[in-house]
Amino acid sequence: MSTAPVTGYSRLQIALHWTVFLLVAFQIVGHEAILRVGEALRDNAVPAAGDVTLANLHVAAGIAIFAFAIWRVYLMLTRGGPQPPESEHPALRILAKATHGILYLLLLGMPISGAAAWFGGIEAAAFGHSMARFVLLPLILLHVVGALAHHYVFKTDVLRRMTRPQA
Questions:
Q1: How many CA atoms lie within 13 A of 99 on its CB side?
Q2: Which residues contact 62 (CB under 8 A, 6 or more apart)?
Q3: Rounded to an integer, what distance in angstroms lies between the CA atom of residue 14 and that of residue 37?
Q4: What pLDDT score was predicted for residue 4?
Q5: Among 48, 145, 18, which Cα is nearest to 92's?
Q6: Contact criterion met (CB below 8 Å) for 82 and 75
Q7: Shortest CA distance to 129 belongs to which of 141, 147, 116, 119?
Q8: Backbone dihedral region for residue 82 (phi beyond 0: left; psi -120 to 50: alpha; all else: beta)
């Protein structure tokens, strides 16, 4: 690893961040199809072809989210990331660290529980996967509000760091 301080994210880190964002958005918007397919299969009915396609895309997107989250963790451990702004209040640093940590746990845990539910038929995994969204959605909102607050209220470079790679 270079001795130069990490003041921003790499192009790859930024690309992975926004790719995972798009995949998670797809999962949130399109999750109903996999529920309908699961219900049809439990009722010994034939699921709608469009729902099967969307369910397969949901599974593929979940696998991709898991792989990209692992990759992001690897890059953070090997390359590092920028430090919080010097002016950031210690309580906000703790909140940001906790938010990111729980987001990563969900980005890794939800695909695992989803796979256990879908491929293994494990009801507890299905329940956990479904309930995790009640943690994921508010955390995503908190993450977005935090980035916007840094940009518009605190006037820091936190949001810009995720849109412009470190030179």
A1: 17
A2: 27, 110, 111, 114, 115
A3: 34
A4: 78
A5: 145
A6: no
A7: 116
A8: beta
The pTM (predicted TM-score) of the whole model is 0.93
Q: How far apart are CA 105 and CA 23, in angstroms?
A: 16
Task: Look at the block and give the residue holding tokens 């979940």.
Answer: 62
**Exposure of 89 by Cβ count < 10 A (0-12 exposed, 13-18 middle, 19+ buried)?**
exposed
In whole numbers, what is the pLDDT of the chain averaged over residues? 95
pLDDT surpasses 60 at 54: yes
Q: Distance between CA 79 and CA 6 in Å, rounded?
A: 8
Query: Domain residue spans in the chain?
Result: 11-161
Q: Do 155 and 102 form a contact (C-beta atoms < 8 A)? A: no
